[in-house]
Structure formats: C-alpha cells, structure tokens
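Take our chain:
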Amino acid sequence: MVRLWALLVLLAAGPAAAECRLALALALDISSSVDQDEDRLQRFGLANALASPEVQEAILSVPGETVALAVFEWSGRYQQDVTLNWRILQTRADILTAASEIRQSRRRYAEFPTALGYALGYAAQVFAEAPPCLFQTLDVSGDGVNNDGFAPRLAYENFALSEVTVNGLSIGGQDDDLAGYYRRELIKGPGAFVEEAVDFHDFERAMKRKLVRELETRAIGWAPGRWLKRGG
C-alpha cells in the first residue's frame, strides 16, 4: 500500500512539477593563465562533449523531463560574462544548436587573475534567472587556485547557493594539486565530485565524462510527510 501511495503521489504531481529535472550551469576559466589556444580547446571541447552521443543520450534520458543549460566565462573580480543564456534542451536539435553557439563564442577578457570566489558569486546571479528545475548544479572548470578576492568559503556564506551542488573540473594547472584544492575548497553538496583533465587537450574527454555523470537520473524517494532528494 505504501508503494502504491507513493506512485499515486508522483502521478498527482503532474507534468509541470517534473518539467525540468536539472538546471546545469557551466563555468569556463578565461584567466590570464589560459592562452588563446587553450581557450579554443576549452570551448571546442565543451561543444564536442555536448554534441557527443553519450551526452545527448544522458540529456534526453528521461522522457518528458528536460535539462536547462547555461554557460558563462570567468576570470577576475568583475570579468564574468554569459556565453550561453539558459536554454531548455528538449531535443537533439536543441543540444546541437547550443553546442554550435558555444563553439562560435569568443572570450571577452584575457589578462585578469583567477577570482574563484567572485565566479561563485556570479553563478548565484545566473541561477537566480534559471527556469524552475528540480535540481541545480554548477560545473566549474579551471587551471588554477583562487588568487584574487575572497575565497569560495566566503562566497558560500554570502550568496544564494545553498541549493546548488558544485562540481569541479581541474585542468592540469599551474598548481601541483589543483584537484585536491578543488576537493577541499570548491565542491559542495550531495555527491559533489572533481573530474581531472591532464591538460587542455584532455579537456573534451574529461568534460564528456563529467557531463554524463552530472546528467545521470537522480532518484526521488518518498516518505510520509516529506520528499527526499538523493543524488545519483
């Protein structure tokens, strides 16, 4: 009877409640340590990863439930810009169009440091404009530790990111243990993780693997009087 009641509750929620299952924002590092060729590898790598059959399948894996995607670039304290505004991905054509726009985008800045805390603050603004979705995930890519402005910890204390899971993609980097730094200082939330790219040439492979993991279907459990969200 409990299982039957849980099923009835899910059905009663209706299509609108489950229309968007995930709002996913991707943050690309354009700090001064990223040269022109590396920036191109990053943008093309993301576009190719999105367009790959594996990622397309992951995005479209739940019939009737969509994924919302946004992309922004970040570097210094005030150098953040949206590359791709929130886009609902319902079809393969939607995904390929988004990938094409990312591939054709150009960085706005090239000479500023790595202000990771400010990037997280900007992400809070991005999510404030996101469509209503069941889950929110921020995916931060970078090749160095925070070296300007406040730390990620202060960003989490002062910006509306409590409901956002934050994952990291460390790219080789100027630091010996960038992945460890990301694990200690950046990621947060249930199931948060760090993917590692050896260098920018390895970015596409790492991003594809990361997107598939982030897009895995998350189970929604039910218990009397409350809903329970569980990371996949």
Q: What stands out?
A: The first strand starts at residue 20 and ends at 29.
